[in-house]
Design a protein that fits this description.
This protein has 283 residues and is α/β, with parallel strands linked by helices. Helices cover 47% and strands 11% of the residues. It has one domain: Rossmann fold, CATH 3.40.50.720.
Amino acid sequence: MWNLLSILLILSMLRATNSLTALVTGSTDGIGKHTSRRLLQSGYKVLIHGRSQSRVDATISELQRYGEVESFTHDISTVSGCLALTSAVKSSHESLDLLINNAGVFCDTYSLSSCGLETTFAVNVLAPFTITRELLPLLQKTKNSRIINVSSISQNDGPRTISPSTVLNSVFQNRETWNKYATYGISKRLIAMYSLNLSKKFDSPTVMSCDPGTVNTKMLLEGWGPCGIDIKDANNEYDLATKELGEDDHGQYFFGQRVHPDVESVENQEELISLLEELSTKY
């Protein structure tokens, strides 16, 4: 005869079997943590990532009441940190349903990551490229898997046109001409460019990029002031992660304005991929 404990155990096993798995980078704060919470509430298992062990632990403690969470603490401002993260994910998971490259930085002053690359470029562009490349085989094992790369409405900041083959030295690595708004904006332009190029190479997973919304995160408050919505209302990433996919979603940029014209240039896309492939082996 079935008792309550047996029924609960079976339900728990069924949930574990049927649940989807998501990795959300930069999920110990702001939109990343909010999106992770909502995914958990929708039945996902969420891999929580951050660079501070104490913040990862605090996030795990806060979110585990909503569902199954797993922690990963890695500094993705370096290629070695990205590879350590993806190696850890691959060692514990044979497949992945959702990757949200949410982690991003807005630097108030010029700085270099420990590998010698300008920090904004390292975290906002090279990291999602490296993480996606390494985890693509896991994503391709599951049906309806998707990659969401977080861009920004700020992609229109900075020079009108750029050549990715020279942008690293002329915009990011030049301390004398470095500008925090232009650097951030171009990094978000480049990640949208990468997303569009990636979508052309594979039918699956579905690749999308998005503006997460103008949200009063620490980043927005420090860079632009309180001009956005509350974090609890920042659902763009979650909506893309859970929406019913349409035929035209693959490669699309969501919400608000069109992508910057540079993004759609095939020549720019190919130059960017060559640059990122070179840097991912050099650094």
